[in-house]
């Protein structure tokens, strides 16, 4: 049994774990006609997922998709069944809750805030993202590594 100063670490992924879908795939549905243009689809194979999503965010911005539109999509992704109950239980101060995800900070923080669980999560390890002064969602690598074949370059 732990002493009063020790906490129990609980770690989650975001997509298909905390939420019941993939947040990037949901956002892609905001593309005109719900489809990614062929030239952008090919970019994923050339540059990887994070630069690909950066290009998607630029495409959405060029097509007048707003920060509000994106937040509404993310806020309406359902949590995985039972996850809300589990997070309520984890509000107890004896837990340290973290998220480790290849998603991005904007999507994760939006989902947590909209569902009332921002205060439950102590730390999020993910790709940093922010809206720039023009309303364009920008994403960056969490970090870059090229030495482990089992991990992506950014996580």
From TrEMBL:
It comes from Dreissena polymorpha (Zebra mussel). The keyword DNA repair does not apply. Substrate binds at residues 24, 102. Keywords: Hydrolase, Magnesium, Metal-binding. Belongs to the HAD-like hydrolase superfamily. PHOSPHO family. One of its GO terms (molecular function) is metal ion binding. This is Uncharacterized protein. The keyword Cell membrane does not apply. Its cofactor is Mg(2+). The active site is at residues 13, 15. Mg(2+) binds at residues 13, 15.
């Amino acid at each position: 049994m732990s002493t009063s100063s020790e906490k129990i670490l609980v770690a989650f992924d975001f997509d298909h774990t905390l939420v019941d879908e993939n947040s990037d795939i949901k956002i892609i549905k905001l593309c005109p006609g719900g489809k990614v243009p062929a030239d952008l689809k090919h970019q994923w194979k050339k540059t990887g997922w994070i630069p690909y999503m950066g290009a998607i965010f630029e495409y959405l911005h060029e097509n007048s998709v707003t920060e509000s539109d994106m937040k509404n999509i993310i806020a309406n992704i359902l949590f995985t069944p039972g996850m809300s109950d589990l997070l309520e239980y984890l509000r107890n101060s004896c837990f340290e809750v973290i998220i480790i995800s290849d998603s991005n900070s904007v999507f994760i923080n939006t989902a947590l805030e909209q569902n009332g669980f921002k205060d439950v999560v102590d730390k999020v390890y993910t790709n940093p993202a922010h809206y720039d002064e023009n309303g364009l969602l920008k994403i960056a690598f969490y970090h870059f590594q090229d030495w482990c074949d089992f991990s992506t370059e950014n996580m």
